[in-house]
Design goal:
Elements lengths: L16 E5 L5 E4 L7 E4 L3 H13 L4 E5 L5 H10 L3 E5 L13 H13 L11 H33 L4 H4 L6 H11 L5 H5 L10 H6 L7 H38 L26 H8 L13 H10 L1 H4 L6 H7 L7 E3 L2 E4 L8 H13 L6 H13 L1 H21 L13 H19 L3 H4 L7
Helix pairs in contact: 4-9, 4-11, 6-9, 10-11, 11-14, 13-16, 14-16, 15-16
Length: 454
């Protein structure tokens, strides 16, 4: 008697589900596992309307799609506007079974997984945060291009033997840009160039003049001039982004008038660099934007960190994560434990680096250089045992936990006393010594104390 093939029935969670395989030139849509019910649509606006109409005609209510590049965005918003429940999922969760891989099989596999409720949606910010994020990311993109152009300017300066990088800490600072602009305008005398030193420069004009005797090669001067003009263009674009961000925040606070009542405490110890947003007090703006949460009270958190938090996730985005652990896992700051047979095979941090994770890691790196700081001490303890790279990740995760609790649970940041005076340190050490002596039952004679002379 032959074996009977057993069938495993799984519960259908989403009966009216569709799966879409996103492409650059066409989208494949499956509404069930029948080959005749797979249809290909284009990517133009009228094609999206036909896709939506076809789904409506087949009584589809929920749709799943992969987050492929930026090709998904237009169709995603069209489907949402028409009332469909749209699940945007990471491509690694929809990997097909072994065998041939085609667009038809992919969309059917996505539809099958979504029907059985095996797909989870990716985090998406609200519409307001999406707008803010676009402005902030464009600004970050210009900053990266500015850094690249700055390196090229430094290269041409070295080729000209104009060693400005030796006498100033930053060639794109006030002194450096003044001298580069003068060189591009035809001023070549070292004594005249040295008079352009800003009053905050630690070097004297005589010291700077020694570094400004260059070889006057025309091809290098031409390259320097072009890079300097490009740098000025980029700085102008950054200013336009700053202006747009300010307009967005002003409009936001006009709608949410109750947030204007929050007044952030001043922070004289927080310094902003040249890349910070101009004509904006991000300490005050962030305090109002998050409803009275003082994120800048955390040591190491700067304008860059706060701007990333405001634009990448926003105050409502934090609430989508049920716990701080979920938030850290989304940031890829938690160990990805792999266990088999009761043994830990791996506990490495998952791959991936979002802009918010990068900003938190940058803040953690700053904390490693701070003295008399609670988080700085935590950083150094981890760095002593596991190295600086691991300490940056661990401290970034600690920052993420602190920030989530501050925004969601409204728990103010209150670290332990970071500094103890000499008498306080002595009392603390003495108390610890007494505790250990009592615990080990050490006598006065064992300590070498002559009680008779006391």
């Amino acid at each position: 008697m032959g074996r009977r093939k057993k069938m495993l029935n799984m519960e259908i969670v989403n009966p009216a589900a569709a799966g879409i395989d996103i492409g650059s030139k066409s989208h494949f849509v499956a509404i069930d596992q029948q080959l005749e019910n797979v249809k290909e649509f284009g990517v133009f606006a009228e094609d999206n309307e036909q896709l939506v109409q076809w789904l409506s005609d087949n009584n589809i209510s929920t749709v799943a799609m992969e987050s492929t590049g930026t090709y998904w965005q237009n169709l995603f918003f069209v489907l949402q506007s028409k009332g469909f429940e749209v699940i945007l999922t990471n491509g690694k969760f929809t990997k097909n079974i072994k065998g041939r891989k085609t667009d038809v099989q992919d969309c059917q596999w996505i539809q099958k997984l979504h029907t059985l409720g095996l797909l989870s949606g990716s985090f998406l910010p609200d519409d307001q945060t999406e707008q803010f994020r676009t402005f902030a990311r464009q600004r970050t993109s210009w900053l990266k291009q500015g850094a690249s152009v700055s390196q090229k300017m430094q290269k041409f300066l070295r080729l000209l033997n104009l060693r400005l990088d030796v006498v100033v800490s930053d060639i794109t600072g006030l002194t450096g840009l003044r001298i580069i602009e003068a060189v591009c305008n035809g001023i070549t005398d070292a004594s005249d160039l040295s008079l352009l030193v800003h009053r905050n420069c630690r070097r004297t004009p005589e010291e700077i003049a020694k570094a400004l005797n260059f070889n006057h090669r025309n091809e290098y001067l031409f390259g320097l001039k072009q890079e300097f003009e490009l740098y000025q263009f980029i700085r102008q674009k950054i200013k336009e982004c700053d202006k747009q961000i300010k307009v967005f925040l002003d409009n936001h606070f006009k709608v949410h008038i109750e947030k204007q009542e929050y007044i952030a405490p001043k922070k004289a110890y927080k310094k902003s660099n040249k890349n910070a947003c101009k004509n904006m007090d991000l300490n005050q703006l962030a305090y109002q934007y998050f409803g009275g949460v003082d994120l800048m009270s955390i040591e190491g958190v700067s304008d860059r960190t706060v701007l990333a938090l405001m634009s990448e996730i926003g105050p409502e985005g934090f609430k989508k994560f049920p716990s701080a652990k979920h938030f850290c896992s989304w940031l890829r700051l938690s160990p990805n434990n792999k266990i088999s047979g009761g043994k830990y095979l791996s506990s490495r941090i998952g791959k991936g680096s979002s802009r918010l994770k990068t900003a938190l890691r940058a803040a953690a790196n700053v904390l490693g250089n701070l003295k008399d700081s609670h988080l700085g001490e935590f950083f150094r303890r981890i760095a002593y045992r596991k190295g600086r790279v691991a300490a940056i990740t661990a401290t970034a995760r600690k920052l993420a936990v602190i920030i989530w609790k501050m925004v969601v649970q409204k728990v103010p940041y209150s670290p332990p006393e970071p500094y103890l005076f000499r008498d306080q340190k002595r009392a603390k050490i003495l108390q610890k010594m007494k505790k250990n002596i009592a615990k080990l039952k050490i006598t006065d004679s064992e300590l070498g104390l002559n009680v008779s002379h006391l």
